[in-house]
Design goal:
The protein has helices at residues 8-11, 15-27, 42-50, 52-73, 82-106, 112-131, 139-157, 162-171, 182-212, 215-251. It is mainly α. The protein has a domain at 146-252.
C-alpha cells in the first residue's frame, strides 16, 4: 500500500495510538473482565458448615471422652465418689477439646469449629459441675436445639422461612430473589418445617433420656443418632433444592 492510500482510519491513527497497540500486542495485555467468581457447589458449602468428616469426628471426641471418663472413674469400674468421677469426666472432655484446638492452631488450620465446640463443652461442664449431675452436661445442647427448632417454626408462621435465607447466602450470591418464585418459596417453607421436625426429634430423644437421668446413654445417643440425623437433613435439603431448580430450568 503506497503512502497516501491508507484507509481513513489508518491515516488518522496517531503515532501514540500505534505505539500503544504494539505494546499491547507485544506484552499480550488484555483488559481484565470483572467477572464474579462462581460459588462452590451447595454440597461443598454444606460440608464446610459441618466441618467435613473430620469436623464431625472432632466434635464427638469431647463427648465420648466425657462418657468414657464418667464410666471409668464412676461406680461401674474404679468406683470413685460421684462428684470426683464427674470432675475427671469434665477434665477429660474439656482437655480433649483444648487439645483439638491446639493441634489445629499448630497446623495453622481453621479453628472456628474447635472454638464453637469448646464453648459448648465448657458450658455443659459448668452445668454438670454446678448441679453435681453428669446428665446436665448435655442440657445446654438440648435447650439450644429446641430453641433452634422454635425459631425456624416462627419463621414459617411469618412466611419468612429461614432455610430460604440460608440458601440465598450460601448458593445464590446473597440474593434473596426466591421470594418472587412461588415454587421455591413453597419448597423453603416445607424444608424449614422439615428442619423443625429434625431438630425436635434430636432434642426430644435426648430430653427423654435426660428426664430418666441416663447420662451415659445421652452421650451415646448424641454421637450415634444426633449427627446422622443432622447430616441426613442437610443432604435431603440440598437434593430437594437442586431438584426444584432443575425442574424449573427444564420447564423454561
Amino acid at each position: 500500500m503506497t503512502p497516501g492510500n491508507e484507509p481513513r482510519h489508518v491515516a488518522h491513527e496517531t503515532v501514540e495510538e500505534r505505539l500503544a497497540e504494539e505494546v499491547v500486542e507485544e506484552l499480550d495485555l488484555k483488559p481484565v473482565e470483572d467477572e464474579e467468581e462462581p460459588l462452590p457447589p451447595l454440597s461443598e458449602q454444606i460440608a464446610e458448615q459441618l466441618g467435613g468428616v473430620r469436623g464431625l469426628i472432632e466434635s464427638s471426641v469431647p463427648v465420648l471422652a466425657f462418657v468414657l471418663f464418667n464410666v471409668l472413674f464412676g461406680e461401674s469400674v474404679i468406683g470413685l465418689e460421684k462428684r470426683t468421677a464427674l470432675l475427671w469426666a469434665i477434665i477429660g472432655s474439656v482437655g480433649s477439646a483444648l487439645a483439638i484446638g491446639a493441634v489445629r492452631l499448630a497446623r495453622k488450620q481453621p479453628v472456628r469449629h474447635a472454638v464453637n465446640g469448646l464453648f459448648g463443652i465448657a458450658l455443659g461442664a459448668y452445668f454438670a459441675w454446678r448441679s453435681g449431675d453428669a446428665k446436665n452436661f448435655y442440657l445446654p445442647g438440648i435447650l439450644l436445639t429446641f430453641g433452634q427448632a422454635a425459631v425456624l417454626l416462627v419463621s414459617v408462621a411469618f412466611r419468612k422461612p429461614l432455610i430460604g435465607y440460608a440458601w440465598g447466602i450460601m448458593a445464590n450470591k446473597g440474593r434473596q430473589d426466591w421470594f418472587g418464585n412461588s415454587r421455591l418459596f413453597r419448597a423453603f417453607q416445607w424444608l424449614t418445617l422439615l428442619w423443625v421436625v429434625s431438630l425436635g426429634l434430636r432434642a426430644g430423644i435426648q430430653f427423654y433420656l435426660w428426664k430418666l437421668g441416663e447420662a451415659n446413654a445421652l452421650g451415646v445417643v448424641r454421637i450415634l443418632i444426633s449427627w446422622p440425623i443432622y447430616a441426613a437433613t442437610f443432604a435431603f435439603t440440598a437434593w430437594f433444592i437442586h431438584r426444584v431448580n432443575s425442574t424449573q430450568e427444564d420447564a423454561a
